[in-house]
Structures are given as structure tokens and as C-alpha cells.
């Protein structure tokens, strides 16, 4: 098997912090976009895609192309174009020969866009569950807040919601001190948010998510699904239950995503 190298953009995307931590924990080497060599016998995995990538590949068109290029697209369909534009963008990179293969993180989305589904797993080192004695927040969400989320979060008192801060110490504490993780889609497209779910899994948090079309590998045994309408009531109901069984529920998901679907394991299996 050729060497697997993950490619960083020079522009820093804070939302990909946990992705790069997973790469680090897995021991994969990294490079920046402007260090990619098309003649090297290696498999390069780039995420996210931005304007830095195509020129780097196109400008090496006179060199022998021995490398394999994979875009791992962790984004979701959004905006007016939705799934159609998502698919068009993915295939445009292949058509332009700057990418050889596109991976997507949601099985249904992969089927609808003709891309390859690869599970984004987690890792035990990404986070450590907090003790029950630490729990003081109803939930953590780790998301920016468009109107759909604001409507849900606004039905809870501020002291019930864990801080949404990026400071590493505050962030770790908020994840350890929350009882539940709540996942609300930013828009009407019911696809997964795999990086956020991988983070929640590492912390052993029981997850309540808005309905997902195809949540694999997150079955009902490992994550609670509920329609947008009524999800506040469902969370209130869960908060009123004995927390012990929910804690075990979260730990089962942690074992599944950090063990059976470990990030490094999923990458190696996909590349073969």
C-alpha cells in the first residue's frame, strides 16, 4: 500500500480542528497543499476543498502523475442548489482531473450524488467522558446558530446549555459537564454531521439528533433520533429519566465509534 498523506489547507478552518486531531491520533503524516507532489507514489487525502487545491495540481501537469488524490468532503448540501449542486461540485473536481475520488460522510448522500461513502469514525484520544458528579448542563451542541437551531436552543435557559466556546479548556469542560449532546441540522437537509458526532462519541455523551435519512452506523441502539418538531419535549423527557442508563447508552456509542469504527481503521479499509 502506498503512503497515505493528509493535506492541510494554508487557510485555517477552526471547524476542522477535531478532524486534524483525529488525523494526528491516527499517526498519518500531513503536508500543506503547496507541498503536494503529483509524481510521488502516495495517496493524498484533502479536506476541506478550497481554492488552494486546483492550481497546485494543474501547475504540475507536466510531471508524471503517480499520486492518487482523494477529496473527503465532510460538508453537507446547503443553499438553493442543495444536493444537485453538491453533486455537481464533487464531480467537477474529478472531471477536471484535480481529484481522483470523492468520499462523502453520509450513506444516503453518497447514493444520491454518486460519490463514495466512508464512515468518519472517532478515537478514544479525542475526548474523555466526565464523571457524573461533573454534570451540570442539560446539553452541549457545538454548533453555530442559524434560526432552526436558535428556535430549539431558545426554549432552554442559558444556564442549561454548555458554553459553545472554542477555548480548548472551556470546550473540554463543556463536553465533560454536559449530560446530553443535541444535534440539530442547520437547514432542511436531513444528512449527518459526522465530525460533531465523532466528537460527542469520544466523550461518551448520549446523543439526541434530529431525524437523519440514513444514519448508519448510528442506529437507534447508539443514538436517539427524533423529528425537529417535538425534539425539545423529547430532550426534556430524557432529562427527567434516571441518567444511569443514558450514561451507559453513551458509552456503548463510544465503544462503537472509537473501536469498531475507529477513524484510522476506516481510512485504511477505504484506501485498501
What this model shows, in words?
With 272 residues, this protein is α/β, with parallel strands linked by helices. The protein has 2 domains: 3-118, Rossmann fold; 124-260, Glycogen Phosphorylase B (Rossmann fold), CATH 3.40.50. The chain contains 10 helices and 10 strands. The strands form 2 sheets. A 6-stranded parallel beta sheet has the order 2-1-3-4-5-6, covered by helices on one side. The chain has a 4-stranded parallel beta sheet with strand order 7-8-9-10, with helices on both faces. Strand 5, helix 4 and strand 6 (116-117) form a beta-alpha-beta unit. It is globular.
Task: Report the order of strands and helices.
Answer: EHEEHEHEHEEHHEHEEHHH
Query: Which structural class best describes the helix and strand composition?
Result: alpha/beta
Mean of residue pLDDT values: 96
Main sheet properties: 6 strands, parallel
Helix content: 25-40%
Strand percentage: 15-25%
Number of helices: 10
* Strand line-up across the major sheet: 2-1-3-4-5-6
Q: What is the annotated CATH architecture of the largest domain?
A: 3-Layer(aba) Sandwich
CATH superfamily grouping of the largest domain: Glycogen Phosphorylase B
Give the CA-based shape.
globular
Runs in which pLDDT lies below 50 for 5 or more consecutive residues are: none
- What's the structural domain tally? 2
- Number of DSSP E strands: 10
The end-to-end span amounts to 7 Å
Assembly category: single chain
Radius of gyration: 19 Å
CATH class of the largest domain: Alpha Beta
**CATH topological fold name of the largest domain:** Rossmann fold
